[in-house]
Amino acid sequence: MASDYDDARLAEALRAVIKKKRVSMKLISEKLGISYRTVQNYINGENRIPADFFLRLAHLLRIDADYFIYGDFRPHHSDLYDAVCGSLIELGLMPSLGPETPQHEREKALTLAARMTADLEARYDRFRAEGAFGPFVSHLSFGRRETKTG
Known about the structure:
With 150 residues, this protein is mainly alpha-helical. The two termini are 31 Å apart. The chain has two domains: 7-63, 434 Repressor (Amino-terminal Domain), CATH 1.10.260; 77-129. Helix 2 (25-32) packs across helix 3 (36-43). It is 59% helix and 0% strand.
Protein backbone atom coordinates (compact mmCIF):
# COMPACT_ATOMS: atom_id res chain seq x y z
CA MET A 1 0.00 0.00 0.00
CA ALA A 2 1.58 3.28 -1.08
CA SER A 3 1.55 6.33 1.13
CA ASP A 4 0.88 9.85 -0.08
CA TYR A 5 3.70 10.88 2.24
CA ASP A 6 6.51 10.90 -0.30
CA ASP A 7 10.14 11.95 -0.39
CA ALA A 8 9.29 15.49 -1.46
CA ARG A 9 7.07 16.01 1.61
CA LEU A 10 9.72 14.50 3.87
CA ALA A 11 12.40 16.76 2.39
CA GLU A 12 10.09 19.75 2.82
CA ALA A 13 9.46 18.89 6.48
CA LEU A 14 13.19 18.41 7.09
CA ARG A 15 13.99 21.76 5.46
CA ALA A 16 11.44 23.50 7.69
CA VAL A 17 12.91 22.02 10.88
CA ILE A 18 16.49 22.73 9.77
CA LYS A 19 15.55 26.33 9.04
CA LYS A 20 13.67 26.74 12.32
CA LYS A 21 16.56 25.30 14.31
CA ARG A 22 19.07 27.35 12.27
CA VAL A 23 21.27 24.36 11.51
CA SER A 24 23.56 24.64 8.51
CA MET A 25 23.97 21.94 5.91
CA LYS A 26 27.72 22.21 6.58
CA LEU A 27 27.16 21.25 10.22
CA ILE A 28 24.88 18.38 9.20
CA SER A 29 27.52 17.19 6.73
CA GLU A 30 30.27 17.32 9.35
CA LYS A 31 28.28 15.70 12.16
CA LEU A 32 26.92 12.87 9.98
CA GLY A 33 30.13 12.33 8.01
CA ILE A 34 28.40 12.79 4.66
CA SER A 35 29.51 15.11 1.89
CA TYR A 36 27.92 18.53 1.80
CA ARG A 37 26.60 17.95 -1.72
CA THR A 38 24.94 14.66 -0.71
CA VAL A 39 23.23 16.34 2.26
CA GLN A 40 22.13 19.16 -0.03
CA ASN A 41 20.69 16.68 -2.54
CA TYR A 42 18.70 14.88 0.17
CA ILE A 43 17.38 18.03 1.82
CA ASN A 44 16.50 19.70 -1.48
CA GLY A 45 14.61 16.60 -2.61
CA GLU A 46 16.94 15.86 -5.52
CA ASN A 47 17.76 12.38 -4.21
CA ARG A 48 15.71 9.91 -2.16
CA ILE A 49 16.36 10.18 1.55
CA PRO A 50 17.78 6.93 2.94
CA ALA A 51 16.29 5.75 6.22
CA ASP A 52 19.64 5.78 8.02
CA PHE A 53 20.27 9.41 7.00
CA PHE A 54 16.76 10.40 8.05
CA LEU A 55 17.04 8.75 11.47
CA ARG A 56 20.53 10.10 12.14
CA LEU A 57 19.45 13.60 11.10
CA ALA A 58 16.36 13.46 13.31
CA HIS A 59 18.61 12.44 16.21
CA LEU A 60 21.08 15.25 15.42
CA LEU A 61 18.23 17.78 15.29
CA ARG A 62 16.81 16.33 18.53
CA ILE A 63 13.46 15.84 16.86
CA ASP A 64 11.58 12.59 17.26
CA ALA A 65 11.23 10.94 13.84
CA ASP A 66 7.49 10.67 14.58
CA TYR A 67 7.20 14.40 14.02
CA PHE A 68 7.97 14.02 10.33
CA ILE A 69 5.46 11.19 9.92
CA TYR A 70 2.65 12.13 12.28
CA GLY A 71 3.14 15.87 12.64
CA ASP A 72 3.74 15.60 16.36
CA PHE A 73 6.54 14.36 18.54
CA ARG A 74 7.35 13.21 21.99
CA PRO A 75 9.73 15.60 23.76
CA HIS A 76 13.00 14.09 24.95
CA HIS A 77 12.80 13.24 28.66
CA SER A 78 15.82 15.38 29.57
CA ASP A 79 14.46 18.41 27.71
CA LEU A 80 11.08 18.06 29.39
CA TYR A 81 12.72 17.59 32.81
CA ASP A 82 14.83 20.74 32.31
CA ALA A 83 11.73 22.69 31.24
CA VAL A 84 9.79 21.49 34.31
CA CYS A 85 12.65 22.46 36.63
CA GLY A 86 12.94 25.88 34.99
CA SER A 87 9.21 26.51 35.29
CA LEU A 88 9.10 25.42 38.92
CA ILE A 89 12.01 27.73 39.75
CA GLU A 90 10.44 30.67 37.88
CA LEU A 91 7.13 30.12 39.67
CA GLY A 92 8.89 30.01 43.04
CA LEU A 93 7.74 26.43 43.65
CA MET A 94 11.27 25.04 43.65
CA PRO A 95 14.47 26.61 44.96
CA SER A 96 17.33 27.31 42.61
CA LEU A 97 19.63 24.36 43.24
CA GLY A 98 23.03 25.79 43.99
CA PRO A 99 25.78 24.22 46.09
CA GLU A 100 24.37 25.97 49.17
CA THR A 101 20.97 24.18 48.84
CA PRO A 102 20.54 21.75 51.75
CA GLN A 103 20.51 18.08 50.66
CA HIS A 104 16.94 17.42 51.91
CA GLU A 105 15.62 20.43 49.93
CA ARG A 106 17.55 19.33 46.85
CA GLU A 107 16.12 15.80 47.04
CA LYS A 108 12.59 17.08 47.60
CA ALA A 109 12.84 19.50 44.64
CA LEU A 110 14.36 16.92 42.29
CA THR A 111 11.73 14.34 43.28
CA LEU A 112 8.97 16.87 42.56
CA ALA A 113 10.48 17.69 39.15
CA ALA A 114 10.92 14.01 38.29
CA ARG A 115 7.32 13.16 39.26
CA MET A 116 5.93 16.12 37.30
CA THR A 117 8.00 15.16 34.26
CA ALA A 118 6.75 11.56 34.41
CA ASP A 119 3.16 12.79 34.82
CA LEU A 120 3.48 15.15 31.84
CA GLU A 121 4.91 12.37 29.70
CA ALA A 122 2.06 10.04 30.62
CA ARG A 123 -0.56 12.72 29.97
CA TYR A 124 1.04 13.59 26.64
CA ASP A 125 1.10 9.93 25.59
CA ARG A 126 -2.61 9.62 26.45
CA PHE A 127 -3.31 12.80 24.48
CA ARG A 128 -1.50 11.37 21.45
CA ALA A 129 -3.23 8.00 21.79
CA GLU A 130 -6.64 9.68 21.80
CA GLY A 131 -6.16 10.97 18.28
CA ALA A 132 -4.58 14.39 18.60
CA PHE A 133 -2.72 14.28 15.31
CA GLY A 134 -0.78 16.87 13.40
CA PRO A 135 -0.93 18.21 9.84
CA PHE A 136 0.54 15.21 7.98
CA VAL A 137 -1.76 12.45 9.20
CA SER A 138 -4.51 13.10 6.69
CA HIS A 139 -1.98 12.18 4.02
CA LEU A 140 -1.17 8.77 5.46
CA SER A 141 -2.88 5.67 4.18
CA PHE A 142 -1.98 3.32 7.02
CA GLY A 143 -4.36 4.68 9.63
CA ARG A 144 -4.27 5.62 13.25
CA ARG A 145 -1.02 5.68 15.18
CA GLU A 146 -0.67 3.27 18.05
CA THR A 147 0.93 4.39 21.30
CA LYS A 148 1.95 2.00 24.04
CA THR A 149 0.12 2.58 27.28
CA GLY A 150 1.45 1.41 30.51
